[in-house]
Amino acid sequence: MGEKAEEILNQVLPQMSDATRIQQADESADSFMTALHTLAETCDYDTLKVDLIRDRLVIEVRDSKTSERLQLTPDLTLEKAITMARQAETQAAHGKLLRQTTEESDHNEINRISHTRNEASEDADKRDARGGNSSSKRTAKCQRCGFSQHQDYTKCPALRSTCRNCKKTGHWDRVCKSRSVRRLEETENDARDSAFL
Predict the structure, then answer these.
(1) Distance CA 123, CA 84 (A)
(2) The pTM is what?
């Protein structure tokens, strides 16, 4: 080794081993950089000072992904390393905040849906208790044929049939309303006739 290199190594290595500083868990990138600069001021690094600070930042930054990105960056300068460390720190903080906001939003949406369903269920229970929506009414009958309700009324078999009772098209005699009106009239007539006897 050359005489100049030995002189530099003799100055740098002991001082660097005394100044091994890693980023603390609750320490920001800016605070870490300030501490590294303070440590470097006490050493006689001359031109190596900036490079050594950059290298400490790359190696000792708390986030391993940031450290990897810094190590893989070609022609990395101290300024570029500081900028990348700050960006990674800001991105991590924003990501954490976004995840919290999304989780809270999802939780609120789930609660809202659950609350709405519970209210609907309670309303249905109240209607059932009053007899307003009993299970017999839920299985509605078709007004044309008398069978269970069709999803599409055009598929009703009585749609084009003629009623045997009133001779109208579109329903069967089993559900004919004219028949019930006629029965009511006959019952009223029978009641009048018996009143005269």
Answers:
(1) 57
(2) 0.38
